[in-house]
Amino acid sequence: MNGGNGPSSYARNSSYQRRAIETAEAFLRKEIPARVNLTNRSFSSFTIADFGCSSGPNTILAVDIIIQALDNKFSSSMPKTKTPAFQVFFNDVSHTDFNALFALLPPQRPYFVAGVPGSFYGNLFPKASLNLAYSSCALCWISELPPELSDTTSPAYNKSRIHYTGAQAEVAQAYSCQYEKDIKSFLSARSHELAEDGLMALIVPGVPDGFLESQSQASTGSEFNLLGSCFMDMAREGVIKEEQVDSFNLPVYYPTPKELEDIIISNGELAIEKMVTLDGAEAQDTMPELESRVLYLRAALEGLIRTHFGHQILDDLFDRYSLKLAHSSFILNPQTHKSIMIFTLLTRRH
């Protein structure tokens, strides 16, 4: 994600992700405290980690909601006992703009803070050290691209495309297999790190059950297709090489609720306490203008594109994308937006 606080930064172009947190707020306030076990337990501290925090204000909003709910739980259930100290760890990949994130922290806050750089698809904390793991809008990023996408001899070779949307079935299957592998690694790492009676709350971008085979009908996927067509236009004009497009794929995958549920059950290390689809987290409500949709995509993908193609093409690419988007009644039509947010609450198995 783009760091800082500039016009195309994630901090200024993540209203869609913020809306997901706001939509999940009622579940966060109710379900987490309800499952914090205070029977025969005493907490001198309570440790929370946000996995995939990024660099904007959204993670601070989520932490505020969670800590307020926990504080109410402790003060109402144990009024004669001092509320534990809250320790919050913000985790994301090492090139995340942690400085921009920390600059947004309120000076008077009821928790201690630390940053933890590294991939959340591996262990990041000591065994049984976390009371609550949390992640929002981050578990759509896969750890690496399946190599067969760039293998000219593979049925999953994704020529002239940058995503599995609208591609042959083998491409979508390669993404799906990588996603399953990654989520199982994520769950295993968190199972190791969660303390006894530890909890994990996830907000996962996805698509409704039944839409996995027709991702081209989801506007998020169609936006990737539209961006891919801009790359191909630039290749035909000689601005970039077609081979560069053929070797570029977006490391993003959107599961269905059933798919995510099956992965969690198959992994077997965490139990599902609740899984629901959030109502009211639609993109058209948080990004109604064309410019906001363009900046949203640029904030998320600019770093990947710069690394692969160089920074020189960025303005040209997103200018082309903006023009195409303006003429795409399908993508801008709210009725075609099929992506969803899945709220999941998990507990560590004994």
From TrEMBL:
GO BP terms, alphabetized: methylation
Keyword Zinc-finger: no
Domain of life: Eukaryota
Pfam families listed in its UniProt record: Methyltransf_7
Keywords of this entry: Magnesium, Metal-binding, Methyltransferase, S-adenosyl-L-methionine, Transferase
SUPFAM superfamilies listed in its UniProt record: S-adenosyl-L-methionine-dependent methyltransferases
UniProt keyword NAD present: no
GO MF entry, a single one: methyltransferase activity
Entry protein name: S-adenosylmethionine-dependent methyltransferase
